[in-house]
Amino acid sequence: MRTTLRRAASTVTISLALLLGLSAGTATAAPQTSILQVPVVTGFEVGPWSVPGDPIQTTPIRATVGETPGSVRFAAVDVKPYYYEYNSRWLTVQWRNLSTGAAGAVDLRKNDVVDVPNIGYVYARELPLEVVANTGPGQVAVMVTQNRSSQVPIILTLFPGLGLLSVP
Fold first, then answer.
1. In terms of Cα–Cα distance, which of 64, 79, 56 is closest to 34?
2. 142 with 63: CB under 8 angstroms?
3. How do the residues of the chain divide into helix, strand and coil, expressed in percent and rounded to 5?
4. In whole angstroms, what is the distance from residue 89 CA to residue 148 CA?
5. What is the largest CA-CA distance in the chain?
6. Which stretches within 82-154 are classed as H helix?
7. How far is residue 62 CA from its own chain's centroid?
8. Distance CA 48, CA 3 (A)
9. What SS3 class is residue 160?
10. Cβ distance 112 to 82 under 8 Å?
């Protein structure tokens, strides 16, 4: 008898919830933006092929999760004003989903672009300021390096940017 009453009460509760639009659905959260725990530290920017600023520079990286399930949007925190040497520099975000084993890499730039006539094709110039990585949901480890193009691309990173994200 008690079991029958419990089932009837459950049925009435579920029916009322559905009738009132209170059915259980997937929870959605607002997007969350954070700065990776360790910024990219680049260094030894001296000589004729350097960029303005100190010889050792840091670039914090912004990560936004929750806009689209299973993806992260990355960007440099401070967009640098145009300087011609930035045309040959870009950031590479490498990621690994620790929950699924999926991995990948995406490139982005950290500077404004100015239309310079006759400059020709420059890889870094064509990159976006923000990039979305489809990591899948789970714990995602991130490593960011800065590169410079020359005859052979060079990594200008003293310490890579590092972070651990929970991607919904």
1. 64
2. yes
3. 15, 40, 45
4. 4
5. 88
6. none
7. 6
8. 83
9. coil
10. yes
Tokens at 46, concatenated: 């001296």
pLDDT in tens, 51-110: 777 778 899 999 999 999 999 999 999 888 888 777 788 999 999 999 999 999 999 998
Which residue from 124, 121, 103 is spatially nearest to 112, judged by alpha carbons?
124
**How far is the C-alpha of 125 from the C-alpha of 139, rounded, in Å?**
31
Q: What are phi and psi of 89, to 5 degrees?
A: -125, 140
Specify whether the CB–CB gap between 8 and 133 falls below 8 A: no
The residues that bridge with 115 in the sheet, in sequence order, are: none
> Residues near 115 by Cβ (< 8 Å), separated by ≥ 6?
none
Count the alpha carbons within 13 Å of 36 in the hemisphere toward its beta carbon.
30
